[in-house]
Amino acid sequence: MALKELVTNADGRLSTTTTVQFLTFLTLAGTLIYSVYLDRVYVPDLFLYLAGFGGGLVATKGAVSAYKAAKESEK
Fold this sequence. Notes:
This protein is mainly α. It has 3 helices and no strands. The longest helix has 32 residues, at 43-74.
């Protein structure tokens, strides 16, 4: 599996949803490693904020896409 397959749709175009999810995962993994290295106690707070932001981006994009599809089907 190539890295390109992780962030593209089946037709080869860049998938913003998949890209956001992949970058959120990398950010959370990097935050965990860095926080453990520095022996910080606020790791759960960082995870909550970062995961909420990454999940929120994907959820709002999905909601907007569903709304646009519903508007298009009404025409």
